[in-house]
Amino acid sequence: MNKHDTLPEAEVELDTGKHWRRLSPIAMLYFVASGFKTLVQNGLYAIPALAIGSQTTSITTASWFIPALGGIALVIVGSAALSYFFYHFRVRNNHVEIRRGMFSRRHINLPFWRIQNVKVERPFYYRFTRFSVVILDTAGSASEEASLVAVSTSYATTLRAQILASRSDYLQHRNKDEAEAEASPSADESPDQDQEQVINTRSVKDLVIHGITNNRVWILLGALVPFFDNLAVGINDYLEQYGLQLEQLAGSGTIAWWQWGCTWLL
């Protein structure tokens, strides 16, 4: 075995002891970027309001626009500072523990064997530093449950190798136990136990209702509000080519609004 097959940076001490460790101040960049990402995601819901407001006034020339941007930036930086000061971690006894949050405190305790995968990433704002982000994917969770957002790259690679080695040992022991259990099946087992059973089904109508009630559908409709008038004019011109009047077909004097609603629901 050559030196490249051994654990990377083996001289790095993983165990932090019983005392909690704080992240490097460079973690502020990570929390600021996360806050900006959250702002952009939530800002999608403001698109309808901005689209309507842009029809009546110029938002960028409003007197409150610059102060609003300053307030948003202050909130993002303040939130990042709080996230940094209330984030602590420690690694000991083959466990990763993370304690974070100010108003909603959260304590995560992950044994090495429960961690399915470990990713070491270096965002662009870490490229000129010696720090990385360790992302821990845990068993039984489809999302990333925990991460060490600013540790040295040497510590991150050593931690990753140790966690994966511990996970491999756990899987080997589990597979060995399962193989022994299969070799001696119990007397009350029957072939019908492996048959699949449908628990629940969904019709096309259910899927359509789910799509209509999805929030992002209403975001799209809200963004199209400024174009509704042009759309109505286009439909009316198209119907007039065939001698039909939209007002006669769907006017309030012809069909009540609640009748239209019942028609769409049925």
From TrEMBL:
Residue ranges occupied by any YdbS-like PH domain in the UniProt entry: 84-163
Transmembrane domains' residue ranges: 28-52, 64-87
Keyword Membrane assigned: yes
Keywords associated with the record: Membrane, Transmembrane, Transmembrane helix
Residue numbers spanned by region Disordered: 175-196
Cross-referenced InterPro entries: YdbS-like_PH
Name of the molecule in the record: PH domain-containing protein
